[in-house]
């Protein structure tokens, strides 16, 4: 599954201009496609980690950490690494230890891993949605539709429901088309779709 820029921005917490800049400077080039720009699920996970780190440390340290991984011949996709910060440096988490990538490269420390998927406020003060639950009745699971947001406990894409609602179907009547979709789930899908559309509007 590939994610367009607007949905990748909402799920990761990055702005559209940040995504453009990070592509241009090779912090993260999309795996999926360049024209139009599409991100893979792994790309969105990595972007979210970058935004979370960026909310606590300067971007230069994020770049330095990624460059250090390359110097150490750790060439996996950035989403493969568990990274965290103490507000000063960035650490690569390996089992029960963390290795400093920025301030004292190679030094091992003991730290707990914070959940980058939880909601947080990015550097601009914008609230970033819970990655796994962008709305109470929506969820993101990599194994379901390649990570595309769906109505919780279903395979029904959020945008399919949102398009029904925007097309005039009352949220209470969506269950006629998709019996597992409750009225509140339909409202959540429409609300999330509106947030994605707002990002799309700012990008245009």
From TrEMBL:
Highest rank taxon of the organism: Bacteria
Domain HTH merR-type per the UniProt entry, residue ranges: 8-67
Xref: Pfam families: DUF433 (PF04255), MerR_1 (PF13411)
GO molecular function, one term: DNA binding
GO terms for biological process, alphabetical: regulation of DNA-templated transcription
Name the UniProt record assigns to this protein: DUF433 domain-containing protein
High-level lineage: Bacteria, Bacillati, Actinomycetota, Actinomycetes, Kitasatosporales
